[in-house]
Amino acid sequence: xxxxxxxxxxxELGRLLGTYDVVVPTxxxxxxxxLAQRTDRQKKxxxxxxxxxxxxxxxDNATSADDALLNIAVKTKGIVVTNDKELREELRSxxxxxxxxRGKKKLAFEE
Length: 111
Description:
The chain is α/β, with parallel strands linked by helices. It has helices spanning about 10-15, 25-35, 40-50, 65-75, 85-95, and strands at about 25, 55-60, 80, 100, 105-110. It has one domain (about 10-110): Rossmann fold. The strands form 2 sheets. Strands 3-4-5 form a 3-stranded mixed β-sheet, with helices on both faces. β3 (about 80), α5 and β4 (about 100) form a beta-alpha-beta unit.
């Protein structure tokens, strides 16, 4: 979503949260590496890999990126940034706060 719309997501996160730390589960990195090899998603996945390279990665034993995000958010009482509707529903049912893109212009926080 960050590459489809011109949103300064770091500034938006600061607006919503003040200070924050970004961590990326290793399952997310692996999923992006796989997507970066597929022609239909190669550019966006490669850009996402470049973007997350500056952040801390957290090892996880999850079978999917979604499971890793859910597990780590539960353990750390963290907030997940995603526009994936199914994942957002699952996070809501577990009472995990979510930040998502609203109106293609800014991020919204949902507890």
